[in-house]
Amino acid sequence: MCDRRMKYEVIIGLLFIYLIYSFLGWVLEVGTVAAKEGKFVNRGILNGPMCLIYGIGALIIILTTEDATSILGIFLGSVIYGTFLEFVTGKLIEKFNKTRWWDYSHKRFNLDGYICLEYSLLWGLLGVLLVKVVNPILLTSFNSINLFVRSVIVFTGLIITSLDLLTSFITLKKIKTDKIGLVSDRLGNFITISIVERLEHAYPTFKRKHKEKKKSDVFAEGISFYKLFWIFLIGAFVGDLCEIIYCRFSMHRFMSRSSLVFGQLSIVWGAAMALAALCLHRYKDRKSSLIFTIGAIMGGAFEYVCSVFTEFFFGTIFWDYSKIPFNLNGRINLLFCFVWGLSAVLFIKYLYPYLSNLIESIPKKIGTIVTNILVVLFVIDLIITGCVMERYHARAKGIEAQNIVEKWCDKWAPDDYMKKRWSNMKNVIEK
Asked: Which pTM was predicted?
């Protein structure tokens, strides 16, 4: 019971960090624009005073720099993850809303206007300030409040933010369909109009689109959710297979490298390929050295986040590179970063075009039905895996099963099964 209370307090603390830094990021953005232009401009996607990218960035930086022992380590980690987050967010916004909210093309050392050296260094400075100064003060003050009051504050903030986000998302969804004029005329929706006008005012590169979009008969055309999901599945299976073969020759034994209870799927590899397809598919005609560099940095950063995530939330370690030269806290190493870079080149230059055409050749109706079924099965598999992982961690601490789900996990997935399924996995308390 004590362990659950501690975990609950940690989760409440993380949610508080997400909310407070979303607000502080908004203050920073508004203050910067006010200093430059001499006027107030709401720079967030929401109507309220929140810039969610800062909240997400703060969470990632705090969790991933926990192992850092020096200011330089925190600075470099903040540079990498802040830049990574900004690059991916820019790609996602442009992909799903056909708009570009910021453009650094006029700045030196930029990459297609999504990121630039100036703001990458700023992420590093903000990360050091956050970890060393601001965060200790905020958490000390927040933790001094009664747990119930903390919970009320956090969940109230989450509910308000979620409702605001839902409203903005619906508006952006309408913009995406390129029928914003019809939407505004038919609904006369004040919220829709105000959000669109605010976004156009806050982000000069944000433009409405009036051109009617024709429906396509091609399944998963372009970089759609369905195509990304299929690339994820293919990457997860191929990555898992490659790791099994690698373990067979390096350790002289077969070892399951799947991330899930059912099926042979490596989530890290699958998510990495889907992320590469989303962010790098336009760069297939660019120099291989550029793709290699981006792939090595993004792959290493992504693998590090996955390692921190599984250790923090499940109390387990799936890989440990401590014995490999040039490793960083045993979570990543230089050799595998090179592998990520080489994989990015091979994938973007040669494999992705073939896979894209193959996926689009699937009949649309059949592809839609099959993909929806696979998504549901994957989510179920993910939930079951999370449950058995949680019980494995709890059993290691001597915590007895309290309900029917936990008892089922103990019966169906005991320690012997877990060690056989994930023979390379270590419990944090065993580390």
From this structure: 0.73
